[in-house]
Amino acid sequence: MYKKILAAVNEHLNSEVAARYAMHLAKTVGARLYFCFVAEKGQQVSIFNRAEEAMKRIFIDAKKMAIDIEAITETGDPVKKISEIVRHEEIDIAFAATRREDVEKRFYAGTVARDLSLALPCSVALVRVVHMGRIHPKKILVPLKARIGHLAERSYFSAAIANAFGSNIYLLHATKPITSFFHGEVHLTPIEWEKKMSKDISHFMEQLNKYKIIHEKRLVPGRAGRSITIEAAAKRFDLVIMGASERNLLGSIFKGNPVEVVLRETPCDLIILKPRHEDK
d(Cα 278, Cα 151) in Å, to the nearest integer? Predict the structure, then answer.
């Protein structure tokens, strides 16, 4: 599915960590890897030098891993230039690190990360780096909704990341508590929750089995965003992989957006995947 992978690198350390996730994915799936740095006009020389040093470190490590790699440096608007590279090279998925502004502002409020996820014609993996020195996750939490869009790609991506690091996957489905008019909230047993599992979640698990990925599942009642952060903190997960919300701007304002909650409060690294490959 992924033959060409791109990682956007800048002067910040979190972008180098995000690029290393891309590097390990490329190694696992046998993809060609592109690293790019786009220097904005009038950018300070010190910023350019830090980004160049990061590119060199990544390039050397990728060569040691026998990854087919190409480094690209451009000048101009980052979103525009990265879009041009993605189209010209026919990139399948692009990695980019979220910046501080993505955490402080609403995810839909015109951040660079949001602009990239909207502008790029390929799949996009936005990486929120929390632990700079922990790039080898062993426990990965994958939250799932009842209905999963782009199921084939989401399961493929999760399995490939798990394979890259020898990780175990833990599936989490947060659902609204069932209520009774006379008795209030109804608490179901794990077996009863499992009977209510959607076909999409069952299919996702079948895909992980096909990729021979060790996984466990957990169904919990509660609001999705809060449940994800609590689970990630309580069980000491190293990485969360979740799909980008498909809610529109108006819906996210009035109903809230689980991605925004996890982006702000995640206790571990987070990858927000916006898939583009259609299910076949």
Answer: 9
Assign residue 77 a region: left if phi > 0, alpha if psi is -120 to 50, beta otherwise?
Answer: beta
Measuring CA to CA, how many Å separate 198 from each of 220, 231, 238?
14, 21, 27
Q: 3: which 2 tokens?
A: 């033959």
- Domain 1-127 matching CATH 3.40.50.620: the answer reads yes
pLDDT tens per residue, range 83-125: 999 999 999 999 999 866 555 555 445 567 778 888 899 999 9
Give me 19's structure tokens. Answer: 């690029």
What Cα–Cα distance (Å) separates residue 77 from each residue in 6, 54, 74, 115, 140?
17, 20, 9, 12, 34
Domain ranges (residues) in the chain: 1-127, 130-280
Q: Give how far the C-alpha of residue 187 lies from the chain's centroid of Cα atoms, to the nearest Å.
A: 32
Give pTM, 2 decimals: 0.85
Q: Are 274 and 245 in contact (CB under 8 A)?
A: no
Superfamily classification of domain 130-280: HUPs (3.40.50.620)
β-strands 123-128, 269-274: how paired?
antiparallel
Nearest partner of 143 among 251, 218, 57, 50, judged by Cα: 218
